[in-house]
Amino acid sequence: MRNFDPTPLFRASVGFDRMADLMDRVLTADPVQPTYPPFNIEKTDENAYRISIAVAGFSADELWVEVKENQLVISARKADETGERTFLHRGIATRAFERRFHLAEHMRVQAAAHADGMLNIELLREIPEALKPRRIDIARSEARGSVIESSAA
């Protein structure tokens, strides 16, 4: 595996600390990522996204969705089953989990819905007006071809 040294990129830049932290986190992360529960991330519009997580066996009351410090944290814990149930085969995993997603700046969680064994989380990128591109009008000079009068005293 190659080592990547981002030092030359940051030598002449200011204010890219978050990008440096992100690159450091990605490059030093544990290569073994948890695979449970499976999830999809899809782009639903220019500035809208959806995270869908397969949460079969969990009720909406056993799921938690939180946003803290630009991090989306989804966790679940199955309530203790006190009933006398005997499984001959148990293929539906209902073990506790916690999934974290790092959110970019200006990302906002709009809604979360639980239906048909799926937890869908809607995200929206809200770019502030000050950061949106804007067109600057160019002032035109009206002195072109005009005669300048001088006053004789």
General description of the model:
- The chain has 153 residues and is mainly β.
- The chain has a domain at 36-82 and 90-127: Immunoglobulin-like, CATH 2.60.40.790.
- It has two helices and seven strands.
- It has helices spanning 7-11, 17-28, and strands at residues 39-45, 48-54, 63-67, 71-76, 97-102, 107-115, 118-125.
- Strand 6 (107-115) and strand 7 (118-125) form a beta hairpin.
- The longest helix has 12 residues, at 17-28.
- The chain is elongated.
What is the topology?
Elements: H1 7-11, H2 17-28, E1 39-45, E2 48-54, E3 63-67, E4 71-76, E5 97-102, E6 107-115, E7 118-125
Antiparallel strand pairs: 1-2, 2-7, 3-4, 4-5, 6-7
Helical fraction equals: 10-25%
CATH-defined topology of the domain at 36-82 and 90-127: Immunoglobulin-like
Q: Give the class-level CATH name of the domain at 36-82 and 90-127.
A: Mainly Beta
- Which structural category fits the helices and strands? mainly beta
The CATH architecture name of the domain at 36-82 and 90-127 reads Sandwich
- Spans where pLDDT lies below 50 across 5 or more residues: none
Principal-axis shape equals: elongated
